[in-house]
Amino acid sequence: MRKDAASIEVSLSELHLRKVCERRGKALNLCRRGAGLEQLRRAIWLGCARKYVAMLNGQTRLPITSLAYFASLIDEVAQPQIPASYWDHVRRRMEELEKRWLQTGNAATAPAADAVPAEPSPPEMI
Fold first, then answer.
1. Would you list the DSSP string of 28-47?
2. Which of 5, 13, 39, 102 could form a disulfide with 35 if both were Cys (CB 3.0 to 4.6 A apart)?
3. Given CA atoms 22, 28, 112, 118 in this order, what sign does their dihedral have?
4. Which pLDDT tens digit goes with each residue over 17-51?
5. Half-sphere exposure of 29 (CA within 13 A, CB side)
6. Are 120 and 50 in contact (CB under 8 A)?
7. Vertex 57: Cα angle to 56 and 60 (nearest 5)
8. In whole angstroms, how far apart are CA 120 and each of 1, 54, 69?
9. In Å, how far are 6, 12, 14 from 3, measured between CA atoms?
């Protein structure tokens, strides 16, 4: 019986290690594509804001489970014609939407983080 428990513990540790490495690998791939820290922040703000809008509108309840969700937004947020002040607006809006989502009580009933990964919503203005 102890061997089974030890085997399960080792398997869980290996799974955790694989997930950590996978996340680091995705982050490195984004950096290799030329995405700087500011672009990553903007992509995360924009992606999260869009996800909260979709969840508040009942379009999805699946959480974001991977950095890959934001990869398609890197090019979008890098557009030079978008003023820096817009990103302050997106960040504030994302924070407001997060508060609304948490207040609805839906956050507690959302699927687990290991559910099927959600894909980004089509681009829309926030």
1. HHHHHTT--HHHHHHHHHHH
2. 39
3. negative
4. 555 555 556 665 666 666 678 888 888 899 999 99
5. 11
6. yes
7. 85
8. 44, 10, 6
9. 5, 14, 16
- For residue 1, the one-letter residue type is M
8, burial (CB in 10 Å: exposed 0-12, middle 13-18, buried 19+)? exposed
Tens digit of each residue's pLDDT (9 = 90 or more) over 62-81: 888 887 888 888 888 888 88
The DSSP string of 60-122 is --PPP--THHHHTTHHHHT-TTS-HHHHHHHHHHHHHHHHHHHHHTHHHHSPPTTSSPPPPPP
Copy the structure tokens of residue 29: 């791939």
Q: Which residue has the tokens 């804001």?
A: 49
Decide: residue 41, CB within 10 A, 0-12 exposed, 13-18 middle, 19+ buried. middle
The model carries a pTM of 0.62
Q: Tell me the C-alpha distance between 10 and 111, whole Å.
A: 26
